[in-house]
Write a structure and sequence with these properties.
189 residues; alpha+beta; Heat Shock Protein 90; 5-stranded mixed beta sheet; two-stranded antiparallel ribbon; 4 helices; globular; disordered N terminus; binds adenosine-5'-diphosphate; binds magnesium ion
Length: 189
């Protein structure tokens, strides 16, 4: 990650304000669809998946300086793809937000894509190095209001699941190595 060291106090203050502002934006983005029932239905458009992922990552990089993002993008992904860019952004915001929480704001998040030519499916994997998700919790994970956090809404993954299914896709969770959670999304093209 790019680290900017600023010396002038004015600039530091300005930077701090930007960070506070950005943090509020992320909070509002994550909370935006807290009313799960009010989720808009999807509107498919031609969009660049990798660009959406990059843009989402950049929302977080200025704020979480101890979080490192690594991307492995397959050049075989059809570009543009027919997806709902706003809703997909929400998917990545929620998955990244959860990964950051799981690692207590410190660690690496991997985002990778691949294309299954036989099935004509796009695979997106997001993996972290937190404690992972116990097997017995995995069934309820995507249900609305399931949360293990003090102030959690438990709606993040329900929204993720909803958006992915509206794209006729699927999402599953597995264990990352050596530890952590790994979410695998598949979307048909
Ligand atoms: N990357 C992850 N690592 C570990 N646990 C996770 C991860 N993502 C989600 N979870 C678990 O799933 C629960 C539900 O997540 P979510 O639906 O986003 O709601 P919330 O973040 O408000 O708790 C979390 O409370 C947490 O227990
Ligand atoms: Mg969440």
């Amino acid at each position: 990650m790019k680290v900017n060291k600023r010396r002038s106090s004015g600039i530091i203050e300005e930077g701090a304000n930007t960070i506070v502002q950005e943090a509020r934006t992320i909070k509002s983005l994550v909370d935006e669809f807290s009313n799960f029932a009010r989720m808009p239905s999807i509107r498919l458009q031609s969009a660049d998946l990798h660009l959406i992922i990059e843009q989402t990552i950049s929302l977080f990089t200025g704020i979480f300086s101890d979080i490192e993002f690594e991307t492995q993008f397959s050049p075989e992904i059809p570009t543009p793809l027919l997806i709902d860019p706003d809703q997909m952004r929400r998917v990545f915001i929620n998955l990244i937000d959860n990964a950051i929480d799981a690692m207590n704001k410190k660690g690496k998040i991997l985002l990778s894509t691949s294309f299954d030519k036989v099935q004509q499916r796009v695979n997106i994997v997001i993996a972290d190095f937190g404690p992972g998700i116990p097997q017995k919790e995995r069934d309820r994970l995507f249900h609305p209001h399931y949360s293990t956090k003090k102030k959690g809404t438990g709606l993040g993954l329900a929204i993720v699941n909803q958006v992915v299914s509206e794209h006729n896709g699927s999402i599953e969770v597995e264990t990352n190595k050596p530890h952590g959670a790994k979410f695998r999304i598949q979307i048909p093209t």
